[in-house]
Amino acid sequence: MSIWLFRAGESGEYENKFLSDNRVYLTWDELDIDLKRLSSKEELYNILIDKYDLDKEKTAIN
Questions:
Q1: Is residue 3 in some structural domain?
Q2: What is the rounded CA–CA span in Å between residue 6 and residue 27?
């Protein structure tokens, strides 16, 4: 069994929207990437590292 933890914003500010819509949304500011065009998780990590000027791949993975 897999269990996923989703945080609905830094302090839960999106929790009601997630629950009422029965969906989970990405809430990253300025995320303008079409995730459908990505072929791997690694490709997403590299884009996030560049876009958000992250120091480590582990930060993008988290």
A1: no
A2: 11
